[in-house]
Amino acid sequence: MDTPNWVNALPLVNAMLNTLATVLLFYGYWLIRHGNLQAHKRIMLSAFATSIVFLGSYVVYHFALEFYTGKASKSFLGTGAIRAVYLAILISHVILAALVPVLATITIYRGLKADWERHKRIAKITFPIWMYVSVTGVLIYVIAYHWPTAVSQ
Predict the structure, then answer these.
(1) CB within 8 A of 24, min separation 6: which ones?
(2) What does the pLDDT average to over 100-125?
(3) Which residues contact 34 (CB under 8 A, 6 or more apart)?
(4) Which DSSP string do the residues of the chain spell out, in sequence order?
(5) Which is deepest, 21, 24, 53, 119, by most CB within 10 Å?
(6) pTM of the entire predicted model
(7) How far apart are CA 57 and CA 65, in angstroms?
(8) How far apart are CA 132 and CA 129, in angstroms?
(9) Mean pLDDT of 41-69
(10) What is the rounded CA–CA span in Å between residue 149 and residue 76?
(11) Residues 6+ apart with CB under 8 A from 110
């Protein structure tokens, strides 16, 4: 069975959502460093919403890919150093990505409750992890889908 175009388009959509999340996270950080609390709040909630949409699209992609191909992911066929780099990034990305929803939810909750000291304390942990996951998500897409011989056909 052929994979529909909408399924094939989802990795790019997911990379675009990760890129948007990265930009929003960076801008939100910049805003709070410049004392703009209300804009920071709006931007960080937008980053969270973007990440939720990403997660939904990501899950749909993998379920649809398995439905149409029998495999839930594409095989990375790169060899040598790029394979080691790809796998290191992928493994760290997956482990940290599992933490982001929990950390982001706690961070946002504390911010919305104006529990500033506890919000700042966890944000110092959440922000770099969330940024790393967003940036490496895009990097994984580029390597997995656009590196020469990266995707099995």
Answers:
(1) 43, 44, 46, 47, 50
(2) 98
(3) none
(4) -PPPHHHHHHHHHHHHHHHHHHHHHHHHHHHHHTT-HHHHHHHHHHHHHHHHHHHHHHHHHHHHHHHHHS-SSPPB---THHHHHHHHHHHHHHHHHHHHHHHHHHHHHHHHTT-HHHHHHHHHHHHHHHHHHHHHHHHHHHHHHHSTT-B--
(5) 21
(6) 0.91
(7) 12
(8) 5
(9) 97
(10) 8
(11) 118, 119, 122
Token readout for 139 is 């990097």
Q: Which of 136, 138, 134, 139 is nearest to 25 (CA)?
A: 134
Q: Note the pLDDT tens digit of each residue in 94-112.
A: 999 999 999 999 999 999 9
Tokens of 5: 């175009």
Query: Over 70: is that where the pLDDT of 134 sits?
Result: yes
The answer to whether residues 98 and 72 touch, using CB atoms and an 8 Å cutoff, is no
CATH 2.40.128.120 applies to domain 5-146: no
More confident residue, 131 or 75: 131
Q: Are 71 and 65 in contact (CB under 8 A)?
A: yes
